Queue: 2 jobs
Job 1
Amino acid sequence: MINEVIILAGGLGTRLRSVVADQPKCMAAVDGKPFLHYVISWLEQQGINKFIFSLGYKHELIEDYIKDQYSNLNVQYAIEQEPLGTGGAIKLACAKSTEKNVLIVNGDTLFSIDVLALAALHERHQADCTIALKPMVDFERYGVVTLDDKGKISSFKEKKFYASGLINGGIYALNVESFLKKPFPDKFSFEKNYLEQYYNERKMYGLVQDKYFIDIGIPEDYARAQHELKIKN
């Protein structure tokens, strides 16, 4: 079981500026509530009870919201003084983790997987990292991840149009000690410089979960979230 999460919420949200005020992406309002509300609610339903927020841009807005709306949450903050990339942000936040394995999610994405199933696969293989994968059709915004017959990551393919494929859903079960052993720089990409660079030599697996998925990073999907999350909740 994994009961601790790192929520990556340090992004600038530049692609949403046309429809959302100048604030972190995860604070964009969806049906009258910050998108982060839906992420936290799902995580709590999954049994997560320890939260590490990886913050940067206008982090005070998020801290104030958590203090006001989630005063009883077991929470820590890892604050980027400058953008560190996804890898640097995870590295900084992992230093605050107290667990062997930690869940990692994005604050601007809701992928309502079964965390228990992800943790079970991760622990069964004693994996370094296990990725939640979403089946998708007719897309070009994401790259594709392939698995071998044992569920191990066999390749990462670049972004282009695909008729169908498995995308990286942005949720990971990560072995903290294993990850921190690598001498990464302070700034790096988790996807490019860890996953894609080391999947051949590390134990990295994928769990396919055809669950609800929304990434509000572009105006079109932010608009879609307004309707879909209102219905779901």
Job 2
Amino acid sequence: MFTKILVPVDLDDLDHQLRAIAAARTIAVADKRPLALLSVVQRLGNYASTFFPKDFERRASADALQRLQTLAERELTGLSVETIVAHGAIYDEILSTQQRIGADLIVMASHRPELQDYLLGPNAARVVRHAPCSVMVIRD
């Protein structure tokens, strides 16, 4: 049914991400399709970057990639999995990665909403509104 599944992962909130990963795994196994795990490292602004070491973003990216690969080995054994680290605004990077890799399904977790979010977290809401493909939101 789907050709490629993109799973954005918040590495700092893995407890909520595991349900989305499990749902994506079930679909990937059933359809015998590849998965892509994506982690987004937010860019530091010019002012904020003065408070961090010069190679902070490079080290953060390397750490995120290692953590994604470990997660894939632990949770997605036996599947074709690509691990991707992007930099920028979370929802923008999810949407641009989806287009770049040709994913036709995004499976993502959404935190329990605050009153101002009402139904979905702000990143999930933007992805759902703007994605040109199907989006499955796994609520915690």
